[in-house]
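In response to reviewer comment 3 from the previous cycle, which asked for concrete evidence that the modeling workflow produces usable outputs, we include below a single protein chain processed end to end. The sequence was submitted unchanged, and the resulting structure tokens are shown without manual editing.
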Amino acid sequence: MFTGKNGYCSIVSNLPMNCYRKGGFANRRDNGRFAAHNIGYVLLLLAKGCCRMHANKQTVHHTNPWRFALQIGFFAGLIWGGVRIAEYYFKFTEVIPGFLAEPFMKHSFIASWSGHLFGWGVFTVFSIAAAFIYAAFFRKIKGPWFGLLYGAAWWLLLYLLIGPWTGMMKAFSEQTPNTLITDSCLFLVWGLFIGYSTAFEFTDERFREPVEQAG
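The workflow returned the following structure tokens.
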């Protein structure tokens, strides 16, 4: 109420200061009148401040969680999917970049460079789905640690259960130590990227950052 174009805030903000100067400041011999005008001037300033605070509250921007999850998941897949290809190329891991598509495509294609790029796209889609799940259920959890746990949970789920069962990869016990260490670290930072980015956006994490003083 009274916040529209012709409401109280607009009336208060447009009041001329001269109306408080004509009586009080021009005729200072009348102390009572001078004090009354001073009080009126202070009340005017307080009213203006309240109006500004109300206007600021009305312009608070709320992030759409699904649009944000789409963006975070896309970049998580783009960045860490590219890192997976580099890891495989330099033989840090034996699990091919397109392992998620292995049950649905021929292995000869998945093992080719075209298959690596296709697998990069599949990993990006998988990352978007993981970001949607995180935004739906865990976006209010503060701090980076749950993101690390989220990435570790996906790594265990894929490498212990889903991967060997569907033929995406060899059994967990048959993987080399380099493969397990490399891929577990990648999923940890992948989960951290999704989890902490989401926590930073939907909790008060941003207010913990030091505020730069205007120089």
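The helical segments are 8-13, 18-21, 31-58, 65-89, 107-110, 113-137, 145-166, 177-202. We consider this sufficient to address the reviewer's concern, and the full set will be provided in the supplementary archive.
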